Each structure stands twice: as structure tokens, then as C-alpha cells.
Predict the structure.
Amino acid sequence: MSSWVRRQVSVGIIFVVTLILLINYYFEIPSLPLVERGITDSTVILASFAIIAGTIAIILFNMKGIVRRTAEWQYKALQMAAIIIFVIFGYVQTPLAGGPVFNWLFQYAEQPLVGIMYGLTGFFIVSACFRAFRARSIDSTLLLISGLIILFLNMPWTIWPGFTTAGRWIIDVESVGAIRGVVIGITIGYIAMTIKTMMGRVRGILD
Amino acid sequence: MQKSSKEGKSLLEKIESIPSNYIYLILIAIILVPLFAPAYFRTPLSVSPLTRQSYATISSLKAGDYVLVGWDVQSTTWFELGPVMLDVFTQILKLGAKAVVVSFIYPEAPTLWSSLLMPDLEKQGLGSQIYGTQYVYLGFVTGGESAMAAFGNNMRVAQYDYQGRTVSTMPVMAGVTDIKSFKLLFAIGDTALQPYVRQFPARYNMTSTMAINAANLSLLLPYSNAGLIRGLINGIRGGAEYELLTQTPSGATAFLGSLTLIHIYVIILIVIGNLIYLLRKRAGEKEET
């Protein structure tokens, strides 16, 4: 099959599926909900295969780096060893959520490492508070004052009720207003991207 | 105030260039000390309106009501949201409501459930003792928001629980026919909660309340203001507020002392840093004149 035909078939499938889902959302047409159910059920199956494909891709990528001894290949070997150990102990004892050894590895190996990585950001933030947060201009001064008010708001111990009032105003008016704008902008972007994909004008996905 | 470089650094310069190690050591101390001696660091706590609303929404449940629980916590947010989930889920079960728990976004959620949450539930007699009769965990359903849409259309996409057992024969599923069987959605997670809002409250007009980590609270506030979410629990502080309302001080309350001291410490650092900056700037301007 030529690449042109393959591309047109892909665009056609995307167009028809998206149209069915859109029409079913806005109109009540008999038998269309059944078709929609079939489509949405199949996405669960496809997503499961996507996880398998992603795992195979990671394994191939790491194996290539180990065999060719690329930079930091030792970390790739460590990652492969971790994948193999977790898969073996995950499947040997129970097929899904793992047994005692798997849970032990997760609780005492993986969780502490994740906690360390996440906790390190706290140290950097504290250091930045002392060295980087400076009132150098009007904008940065306003940002600093807002940040301090929010810190007072989030503190469990309320020192002065005025901080609570000011902090709630900053969050409920300024912050929510900005987030609303961002969400609406993202949604408009989604709609534009969907229309482009339906029309076959998105190169990266279909090629 | 400013001395020449030949005479060494001024006091302000010395304070400003203090090694970060000392800042980190003080931070570690103020985190650990309240955990070992919580009695000395009890702080009064005010309850926010969002937490009150969440508590009121959950307290309105009656025995036999069905709750859909979205459990999409990952390893990084477990430390902040784990205590909150324990508090809220315990209250749901103690009210006699029935729960169907499911994960759509993070594949590690079932492992967090089995290795970290279930042991705590077992200690309270809410683990295997009532699993299958009062609640069931359907595990991770692949597909993200598409899986949520599929689940809303047809709950049979999740036919097995997180350990591979068929759920259709479990007593808890007897009263569940479709998505409209659920009186309430309680979802807990981070940025993963936005798809929940689009697929359940917005689509099926389902009453919902959520718990989110503090860094991402702003993402859900527009939905809360629009009435799609009734109540938001804001991270570990929200968890402590919830424990205050349920009068069961536990994991979240234990962190309150550290949380207060950390906030005070950060405020002091910001104020000192800016004072030094302003004083040095003024001294520099005076030298020039």
C-alpha cells in the first residue's frame, strides 16, 4: 500500500470516528450510542497494547545503549535490572498487584527514592527564597508581596485575619481568573488541533 | 557600611553568602523536631470553606449509597494525599456507604493501594474484612480520559478487581447497574483530576468532591466556583482540617507543626534576603553620591 493511500486511510478513520463521537454528544440518534460504546471500549484495549509497545520500546532503547556502551550505559543497565526484577516478582506471585516481595520492593526501594527526588525540590525552593526572590522592580515586588500573603494564608496558624481575606481574594479573583483564561485557551487549542487532525493537516502523527 | 574587598566582606555580604548547607540543616531540623515532639508544636488551625463543603458533601451520604472513588495518586503525591485518602475513605465506609474504587491515569495506583493503603485499612478493620461486601477496587483501567469515557458508557470495561477476581459476583456490585447508580464521586490526585471533572460531573451531572495536592489547587478552583465540584480538600493542610472536622487527629495533623514552622522559616528567609538586598543597594547608592 503506498504511503499516500495509508495516509488517506488514517485520515479517513480519524475523521469518521471523531464525527461519530461529536454527533453522539450533541444529538440523540438511535443506535449511535452503541457505536460510540464500541469505539470507547476499543480505546481501552488499544491503550493496553500501547503500554506493551512502550515497554518494548524502552527495553530496546536501553539494550541498544548497553550493547554499544554509550555514555552512562551503566545507568541503562541498572534500569533494565530494575524492570526485570519488578516484572519477575510482580508476575511470579500474583499477576496484577503484586505479592509480598513486590510490595516490599515498592515500599522500601522505589518509594524512598521517589520521596528523595521529590523532597530535593523543597531544599532548592528554600535556598531560592533566600537568594533569588528579590524585589528588584515593581512587578517582582508585587509578585513577592502576593507570594508572602499566600504563604500566610496557607500557614495553619492564622496570625492575622487580614492575610486570610487578602489571600482568598488573590486566589479567588486573580488566580482563578488567570487559570480560567488558560483553560479556555487550551480548550480552543484542542478544538483547533482536532479539526486539523480530522482534515489530515497534522504531519507528525500521520506520517 | 560597605568595606573594600581588601578588608574582607561586610556583615551583610557574609549573611547573604551564607553556605546553603546551613539553610538546609535548619530546614531538616524544623521538619524533624515537630515530628518527634508534636505536643510542643500544636498550632490552632482554621478550617477553610472548601474543606467544610467537602465534609458536608461526604457527611450527607446515607447507608447503602454508592460512591465512585477515583484513586489516581502517584508515588510523588502519596506523602501528601495518602493520609487524606485514609481519612475520607474511612469516613465513607463508617457512614455505611458502598464504594467502587478505580484508577484511570497512573498505573502505579494499584501498587500504592495494595502496599501502602490496604495495610492501614486492615488495622482499622476496614480491609479484607469488608472488601467485596462494602467496597471493591477495580484496579487500573488503561486509556486515561478515554477509559473514563468508556467506563461512564459501560462499566463492564472493568470486569476484574485489582487482583484479577471477577467483580460481577461480589455483593457490593449488586446495586450498581450503570454510572447513574453512584450518588457521589470522590476523586483524589493531582493534575489527573481535570479529566474526572470533564467526564463525570460535567457529563452525568454527578455530585463530586475532590482532594488535590496543594500545588495544583488553582487548577480545580474554576470548576469549584462553577458548581461542578462541591468542596476541595487542599493537600496535607486540607487533610488536617478534615481530621479536625471528623475529630480523628491522625497522619495529616501530625505534619501541622512542621508545616507551620516551614512556612515561618520561608517567610523569614524571604524577608531577610530582601532586607539585605535593599540595605546593600542603599549603601551602594550612598557610596556613589
User: Anything to note?
Assistant: Chain B touches chain A through 58 residues (CB under 8 Å). Residues 1-6 of chain B have pLDDT under 50 and may be disordered.
